[in-house]
Known about the structure:
There is one protein chain. With 223 residues, the protein is mainly α. It has one domain. The chain contains 7 helices and no strands. The chain has helices at 10-29, 38-94, 98-104, 115-130, 141-184, 186-196, 206-209. Helix 2 (38-94) packs antiparallel against helix 3 and helix 4 (115-130) runs antiparallel to helix 5 (141-184).
Amino acid sequence: MGINKKNKTIADWIxxxxxxxxxxxxxxxxxxxxxxxxxxxxxxxxxxxxFADSTTKxxxxxxxxxxxxxxxxxxxxxGKKATAKLAVYIENAFLDEARRINHRLLLDxxxxxxxxxxxQHLVSICSALGAHxxxxxxxxxxxxxxxxxVKDEFxxxxxxxxxxxxxxxxxxxxxxxxxxEFRILLKPIRMWLYRMLPQGxxxxxxxxxxxxxxxxxxxxxxx
Length: 223
């Protein structure tokens, strides 16, 4: 029988390609009559190689996207910590004026959960800090600089997430296209083996190629 396509993972299809080439290498080494003809061998090598390469690229872009999301989340937490520390410093340093200062610096606004809103929120806080009266109400760099830094990094992280997401989508689409081209070749190879193997479609050598042989006793395809 052929290959059960249900629930096949990318790793499963990679393994099938490797099995076909390995089994054919053995057939060639042993000068077996069922070795793939040169044209068929060249085509499966090319299609499998293209599929394998596209899978590596898709995996790499997927990892890059995942890491960019993790970095964005980490920076969001750092931003919350930095702005909270600044607000607490102001409360302790300026007492009666603290509420007014925190309001002007937008530090009394609930920390946003939405990425785009958070990005704008951090930008607005930094803009307010730029207009803050440092002479009357000086704010130490140890509390202000981390807010500026996390704003810059978080905004860059958002761009990275969008870019890596697009890269992942493109790479995944390319991998799926290469997989489809590779899978088209499996039926001709299977039919060739049915015709050339000593036991035809019942030959257990099919297993080495990644195919499931027919079951003689049941006179139907084995599950």
